[in-house]
Amino acid sequence: MNDNSFPKTISKTETIEVEDNRRDFIKKTAIATTGLAITAHTSFYGMELDPIPEGLGAFENFKNKENTNVLIVYTTDFGSTRTMSEAVERGAKSVEGVNVVRKMAKDATMEDSIAANAIIAGTPMKHRNMHSRLKEYVERVWEQGWLVDRFVGKVGGVFSVGGGHGNNGAGCELAQLGILAAMAANGMILISHPKTTPGADYAGSHWGPNGRTGGIKMKPQKLTEEMLLAGFHHGANIARVASALKGKNDLLAKGNISPSPEVLKMFRGE
Questions:
Q1: Residues 6+ apart with CB under 8 A from 121
Q2: Inter-residue contact 160 to 124 (CB < 8 Å)
Q3: Whole-number Å distance between alpha carbons of 86 and 235
Q4: Residue 198: which residues within 8 A CB-CB, separation 6 or more?
């Protein structure tokens, strides 16, 4: 036993006093730390620190502001993804009490996305991945919103269009999963594409409809009515779920604050 070791015995009174002091210290520290975190995070959401604007974006143009808002974000090269996006839009609009905004990815804003109750993202295949223009939207909007949890609880879904060599869907599953992974990171509620969906036999994917625009040897082909039917019902499915969940903001647990206010300032270069 050296001079730095604990004493062999300690009185009961001393033990209780040490334990009580420790508990009191932990309690006070926890209260102080929690208060600091809440204050800092609130101020980040406020005008002083928060660079993300509020507003209704393009949804401001609708007369009924109480409706469910569905945003369709897509990009296209030859027009086929636009055609599929129109089918998805018709499906979402077929649900009563739904406002729909359909925008090219380059034009979709943070305000549009925050105001939406559901976001449906569509892309043409680009080497088994989403198109770079949609990826730019993901980084410009979703990634920035992720920092301050802007999209937690929103509904999300995907669709895609592509040809490609062979008969494997040109990697559509990888591209769709990439988009859904970004949605999942944002805490969105993901809507899949079950085989019960009309048209799923022709635009099949577990994750969202994929319209084939190329044959086995890459010969171009148009989207069929069956493929577009799958897009229609996928849009309607997402709109119905978004309407059912609207206003139920307490479904997902909240309380963890990450990144910390200090890290958030770092992201802003402060």
A1: 72, 73, 74, 130, 134, 137, 156, 157, 158, 159, 179, 183
A2: yes
A3: 10
A4: 229, 230, 233
C-alpha span between 101 and 73 (Å, rounded): 9
Percent composition of the chain: helix, strand, coil (DSSP 3-state, to 5): 45, 15, 40
- pLDDT tens series, the chain, 270 aa: 444 443 444 444 444 444 444 444 334 433 333 333 333 333 333 323 355 777 899 999 999 999 999 999 999 999 999 999 999 999 999 999 999 999 999 999 999 999 999 999 999 988 888 999 999 999 999 999 998 899 999 999 999 998 777 665 658 889 999 999 999 999 999 999 999 999 999 997 899 999 998 877 888 889 999 999 999 999 999 999 999 999 998 899 988 888 887 887 787 677
Q: Check: CB of residue 104 under 8 Å from CB of residue 121.
A: no
Strands 68-74 and 118-124: parallel
3-state SS string over 78-104? CCHHHHHHHHHHHHHHCCCCEEEEEEE
The two tokens of residue 70 are 């569905």
Strands 155-162 and 210-212: parallel
The backbone torsions φ and ψ at residue 211, rounded to the nearest 5 degrees and listed phi first, read -90, 120
**Cα 109 from Cα 58, distance rounded (Å):** 9
* C-alpha span between 202 and 213 (Å, rounded): 12
